[in-house]
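protein under study:
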Amino acid sequence: MNNDTIAAISTALGEAAISVLRVSGPQALEVAGTVARTRKPLAELKPRQTQLADLLDKEGHVIDHAMLLRFQAPASYTGEDVVEFHCHGGLLVTQRVLELLLAAGARAAEPGEFTQRAFLNGKMDLTQAEAVMDLIHAQSTLAMRAANEQLDGSIGREALQMREDLIHVLAHIEAFIDFPEEDISPETGEAMLARIEAVRDRVRRMLATAEHGRILRTGARTVICGEPNVGKSSLLNMLLGFERAIVSHAAGTTRDTIEEMLQVHGIPLRLVDTAGLREGGDEVERHGMTRTGREIERADLMIEVVDGTRARAETKRVETTLEGSRRLLVLNKADLGVHSSWSADEGLRVSSVTREGVEALRAAIRDVVLHGSASMMMDHPVAINARHKSCFERVSASLEATLESLLRRDAPEFTAIEAREALQALGEVVGRVDIEEILDEVFRSFCIGK
């Protein structure tokens, strides 16, 4: 399939000023030349130089006037010959040009196939290929920074450096297997232990970013809950900056969950407004409260809203197994005064009307979501994904086993097996081993044209 010439629309479907179609493969120039009428053959066009072209159908009728851009292998995104068509962004025009490219001999690209070819042709490692999709889907500034850091090769470089250190260790172990009469000197053994421990510590630091990576990619699930009429929907609207939820003095106005994405200090939040928790209510409202309970239990953060003007003893708190470090208490309606029964350091004083305390709330959300490591994320936003985490966990387990084997002074053959397992897992991070199933899974999530 890698010898095929592929084509796809690389911009989103819909009407726009321009649309981009991309052709890549050994016959890219011939396929593009069949559709485009230019002043001189595409093969004579200088790489990365644009040329105006008429795009013609089989009858010679002009479909569009477009700009053509040629990239010569290997200096292209895919590492192959690539031709880009920059057309007018009409749906009919774009689709018609694609049909002509396919009729001229190109094959419709699979989702992610352009990036997969870039990986297979050595233009990027697997972590960089994954970062392309992370950048496309980024919903916050921190997520965008993390994707760009990964696209620049930060995770790949770290994994490759650890792999080189382990290769050095394994080379020593293999030498003792080949030359058993040479015993491991105490100095050499201590140096090997130190090198393995250093790699293990680096792996642990990478694993510590996994939770941040999940939040940056999918958003921290943040549930707003509390009794009816305490201002949950008003708080949601205030944080969003627009009227998303209906606000009413009537109890039970919100009967189902309302979900919106929000960015707080560069962190994506999946903000969920829920039905008020109270006894009674009709069947629909009770169903909404059941759903509220489920949302709370799977939340990354729970914002419990209470009416700050009411006495603490009159307030029914939310019962949940969610640990305290993932909960925030908001004393709403602070503009009307907070009841004296609430202690000075209990809860955040907030007013959805005057926006009092909103910045303090946003800062508290940031600190809870990032578990107090906000400065680290701001300075070093690199964070691994679920696949990286699985690989690094295997690396960590294999390194622990390697250390134990060395300390027990096992036969070098057994120690080498564990070291090779660590090397295998590190290779999977960047795609340096034969992992066809992993590649298929990674690129299956891509959009067509990328």
User: Anything to note?
Assistant: Confidence is low (pLDDT under 50) at residues 246-255. The radius of gyration is 29 Å.
